[in-house]
Amino acid sequence: MFTFNCDYTEGAHPRILQKMLDTNLEQTVGYGEDPYCAQARQLIRQACGREDVDVHFLVGGTQANFTVIRAALRPHQGVVCPVTGHINGHETGAVEATGHKVLPQPCGPEGKLTGKQVDALVQAHWADEAREHLVQPKMVYISHPTENGALYTLAELEELSRVCRERGLYLFADGARLGYGLTARGADVTLPDLARLCDAFTIGGTKCGALLGEAVVLTNPELQKDFRYVIKQSGGMLAKGRLLGLQFLALFEDGLYQEICGRANQLAYRIADACREAGFPFFAQSPTNQQFPIFPNRLLEQLGQDFLYSTWAKVDEDHTAIRLCTSWATREEAVDQLLGDIRALGKEL
Amino acid sequence: MFTFNCDYTEGAHPRILQKMLDTNLEQTVGYGEDPYCAQARQLIRQACGREDVDVHFLVGGTQANFTVIRAALRPHQGVVCPVTGHINGHETGAVEATGHKVLPQPCGPEGKLTGKQVDALVQAHWADEAREHLVQPKMVYISHPTENGALYTLAELEELSRVCRERGLYLFADGARLGYGLTARGADVTLPDLARLCDAFTIGGTKCGALLGEAVVLTNPELQKDFRYVIKQSGGMLAKGRLLGLQFLALFEDGLYQEICGRANQLAYRIADACREAGFPFFAQSPTNQQFPIFPNRLLEQLGQDFLYSTWAKVDEDHTAIRLCTSWATREEAVDQLLGDIRALGKEL
Amino acid sequence: MFTFNCDYTEGAHPRILQKMLDTNLEQTVGYGEDPYCAQARQLIRQACGREDVDVHFLVGGTQANFTVIRAALRPHQGVVCPVTGHINGHETGAVEATGHKVLPQPCGPEGKLTGKQVDALVQAHWADEAREHLVQPKMVYISHPTENGALYTLAELEELSRVCRERGLYLFADGARLGYGLTARGADVTLPDLARLCDAFTIGGTKCGALLGEAVVLTNPELQKDFRYVIKQSGGMLAKGRLLGLQFLALFEDGLYQEICGRANQLAYRIADACREAGFPFFAQSPTNQQFPIFPNRLLEQLGQDFLYSTWAKVDEDHTAIRLCTSWATREEAVDQLLGDIRALGKEL
Amino acid sequence: MFTFNCDYTEGAHPRILQKMLDTNLEQTVGYGEDPYCAQARQLIRQACGREDVDVHFLVGGTQANFTVIRAALRPHQGVVCPVTGHINGHETGAVEATGHKVLPQPCGPEGKLTGKQVDALVQAHWADEAREHLVQPKMVYISHPTENGALYTLAELEELSRVCRERGLYLFADGARLGYGLTARGADVTLPDLARLCDAFTIGGTKCGALLGEAVVLTNPELQKDFRYVIKQSGGMLAKGRLLGLQFLALFEDGLYQEICGRANQLAYRIADACREAGFPFFAQSPTNQQFPIFPNRLLEQLGQDFLYSTWAKVDEDHTAIRLCTSWATREEAVDQLLGDIRALGKEL
After folding, report:
1. DSSP H or E stretch at residue D245
2. Chains A, B: CB pairs < 8 Å
3. What are phi and psi of A320, to 5 degrees?
4. pLDDT at residue A2 above 90?
5. Which of chain C's residues have a Cβ under 8 Å away from the Cβ of D239?
6. Interstrand relation of C77-82 and C102-105 (parallel, antiparallel or unpaired)
7. Do the strands D102-105 and D136-143 form a parallel or antiparallel pair, or are they unpaired?
8. pLDDT cut 90: percent of chain D above it
9. What is the per-residue pLDDT across A215-236, written as a single tens digit (0 to 9) for each?
10. Site from A63, A240, A326, A333 to mutate, B interface, most B CB atoms within 10 angstroms
11. Crossing angle between the packed helical segments A332-346 and A256-278, to the nearest 10 degrees
């Protein structure tokens, strides 16, 4: 049985583990102030092409999201996101638990917001005479790639960023799967672009080969101030913080991050191509490691005999969108076998 | 330079790392529902002598504390603790950030609460006609060992537990360094005692040889309900949750937890004995891995040349209490060298 | 210039003011424990036909809503409401500020939820394997009348109540304009019905003739416990609490509440009839004191010369729904004059 | 039976009620944007000698306190206050409920903080290497008069203000009983002083002759921004907001505030003098309307036969400090009778 249901079913990439082994007995200061965290920070700054950004290593994605948001917003301010945004529907209300309303906006299957959309809603807020009875939009949250595997184009991101700056909102990009986004076919958004266009963004570790950990990059000085206090208060400051630094060091010191994510994308494209050729339509177009083919329900049981997949969305009475993921740990032979099954099932369409 | 300043300067015990290596490529379900977490839970239940307790693995101590507290309390309720309690002074107000007042109580240098003290304050609350203007005490938080290394006796813990049950309060014990407490000279509180007397307690991993992680044991069914939702919302649910399960499995499957903590205690006693013999008094009596000798300020620089220690408290203009810690990773020769220094410094008293 | 824009442009009904004058120099205990609050509570209990309900007087509607909700929910639980619900869009995120997500549901222009809708969403929650990553629905919030003036029928309310009880959710009805709902043409929901079918509901004072104040009625014993602590903590406990009790005493001791609200409804019907006859369609059907006719934008300026109205919704490029309200203080001659204007404007349609 | 237990046992001063009567049928805009609120704001600005301060009218004291505090602080910041501060012990943890730790400091029976004390604690915070594990002090809360009736001298307040500005903290003065403080014997702090030295302060209405209401004066532009959103979210924005404006208009348009508070002080001095002459010592020295004589317990029952007093503090096994208050509504003959009793009881000392 092979698992394609998500991209965090195995442990860490061996080069990460090796680094942990090699340094295990060294004595370092705690709470992320050790030399390994410092090195990893430096590498990330270089990769972003900016020396003036702050980099923090947090334990997980939900935590990174709400920590950034609560550090940035005043009590009456909320965060705009697509209705499909992870903070809106898959974090048990963690943002609201910190006191802030999530302001979900309609979006297509790709799960993206447009600058125009943001502009309209912010203008509507400030034009409303009763605006003090409404939550003030102050931050825009997007995911890149989105929850449905899609990517913003550079033009789209620039437009969003321009609107946010014009209207006085922070732009925050959740990069839980950023590695897949940076290495996707046709992707034109780079780390320096994110560092230039966003006020904050995360570089996901957990879903990109690490054991755990997300790097939070803060580019806006307003968000940088006292951020470590807020991490500590939010339960995100690891005593043995080097565990996070070491992993990002391994991922960034010689291109491992992009290497393993790029490879996973390639495997995903093979799956996508097979689905397409076999006649399965897609729920959303994804150039990244998550693919969302639509299967007739009657074929799902058969598919499930050899492979684990995620159920993603009910399309109609008879059809279901499923999620198939690849990762650093996906084996070629597992993909080969999956392709065989897809082709076979395609004949029963 | 050897570090005695805290017990989390190295990585994880090698047997923990080995287990991570051995299982790294296995595919398991996420979020703590994998077989390794299940096994670790079962071992902890056995060690507690109760099959009906819930065991959850969280990322860190601050997070474990505020997650338990916010899951248990209603908005108007607060948590009583000694003024030295970790939640009161070293977690950046994480409990208050979840909306609950910490109600600190005076205590001696050992950092302990008494049942009598709790009884008096709870009775005073309910006798107060204006009690609705006060925070209602609903939980008692203690640390075992305390922040100053001391231990509750079984009789003290039984008394606290009796009062809490009589008065309708939850008793929650923070066991960030529980391993050292269970194996200390003269300790008479066991895991089954904690499971019998507390409504919730933690079994610390980070400071007892793990990379990270705290086991939360919930014995009171009222606290068990929906706890995983609250973990997720609080940012404490690890995607690759097995990382935590594996570590507790390694610590509990063949007595490693008590073995390494017991050894660290023995090394700490050697340090304590040397201080005593050399004429250094103690800030607090500790039978565990943290020792708090008082040094004349004029000798501290010299001590600091070879060893890292923590500054703990200013005793008077000329004297400072310091903390010296041991851990699974403390080397005998480092201790030997420290003893030499202590003896030498003692002659300058 | 007459104001029809809302129902709180004047002070209090004269009989309320008179009661304040008559008792002004009496000395009473504070914080709502005085004899006038007690009498008012007793009258409300009688009007509800239940002696076992708790009645509290709070300062305002937003406060009453978030106080009830935060007192009732655990951290991971949320409150389901129609997307038009007051808590979702007009309280500056007050519910989220207490840590709880509002779960807005689609609804028609009337702004109502159905039992079926609630049933489906609650079942979907519990059927979801990843439900611990979602906010748990635990309360249903409705308004009666709704924000758009509509009323639940008794059958609809019974169905909602049945579903909530079957699925373990609390049903909470916001009665900011309850008086108009109880006395509306065709209304079949009574105070005893609300007390029988809801776990909590409010009886609005501010919009029904009082200076300020909302009565919160708690019928479910789970919600009654310690509620005064939560009021105090939420800033809703008035030192001179009798000010609220006196007003509800005046409103309930001889039928004033229903008398003045019923009269306002009658005036509203005259306005509605005039609009209908003049050819103006309606944004929502309302049998209560708020009417929502749709006007061509070109006629609005003319209407606004003599009357204040609220802009409610943009219907299309050329048409706008407006709100016209009546209250205890609406004068017959103002209505007469408004009717004249409406008829005149109708001729320009 | 006369009540001296608190200063809010009656309704409002007749001139306040009269103003409500006179304007009751006028139609005004809601939410504090009416002409009466505007006039009252203007009078308060004049009384403060500053045109650039923002004035808001909130419903109550607890609400005013937590609204100012949560609007001002970031998540990791806390508010320093004397241990006797109202926010620390008599508001059911309302400040903590908004996520912020109260940092109580030791103080004498007068309940005052010193600039030196604040300076030391802020310096200690910033000197602590582990300060990110501590709540950051960012605001100082004082009461003027204090909970025990005492007053800051101008020199003391200037010193506190100087320290706060030097160290980057906000200074917030709770003036729930400010009227008594401004008119006390020997008082040298004026409204312009408060406006010059504090970043925010309140002018109490409820305890100084109004039905309800506190004026919040914001002098620091940082605190002014978007404050109305936070009021609304906190449940403090009254729909019929003019009710608050009218009262402060009545209190400030012709010196009523100082007139009635000054008279109450005079009556309190008569009580204090009688206690002193009769041989009763005092728990705290108060030049304002609250007096805290110490009575032998054996005499309390007798005193309680004719008068209501508050029990304030247990002094020893046999003695209790009580509170006797005067207000705008205290009648001369009640005071005369009380003086008689005090003298009679003094003979039994």
Report:
1. helix D242-253
2. 143
3. -135, 135
4. no
5. 8, 60-61, 206-207, 212
6. parallel
7. unpaired
8. 99
9. 999 999 999 999 999 999 999 9
10. A240
11. 20
